[in-house]
Amino acid sequence: MPNDLEQNIIWIKNPFTSEIEVLEFIAKCAKYLNIDINKLILFERPLKTTSLLVKGTFPAYRHIHFWIKKQL
Q1: In the chain, what is the straight-line distance between the N-terminal and C-terminal CA atoms, in Å?
Q2: Using CA atoms in the order 25, 17, 63, 42, what is the torsion angle rounded to 10 degrees?
Q3: Tell me: the pLDDT tens digits for 26-70?
Q4: Pairing of strands 62-69, 5-12
Q5: Residue closest to 8 by CA, chosen among 69, 51, 72, 71
Q6: Which of the 8 DSSP states describes residue 4?
Q7: Contact at 8 Å (CB) between 41 and 70?
Q8: Residue 24 burial by CB count (10 A; 0-12/13-18/19+): exposed, middle or buried?
Q9: d(CA 9, CA 69)
Q10: Beta strands per DSSP E along the chain
């Protein structure tokens, strides 16, 4: 990761959590952290990823990478 990025992970325990609930939670996190939601970088890898290039994944748990550009 570049030095100017901070990574957080949102773990989604319930597989039936709706997209709206996830987006509302992300918006609350951004508001709490005082971050412009338009400046977030979000990434969710499909649960069934089998690529040899992907290491350290958690296929049983849905999760979203939440990257924030640090204020330097």
Answers
A1: 15
A2: -50
A3: 999 889 988 888 888 888 877 776 666 665 566 677 888 888 887
A4: antiparallel
A5: 69
A6: T
A7: no
A8: exposed
A9: 15
A10: 5-12, 41-43, 62-69
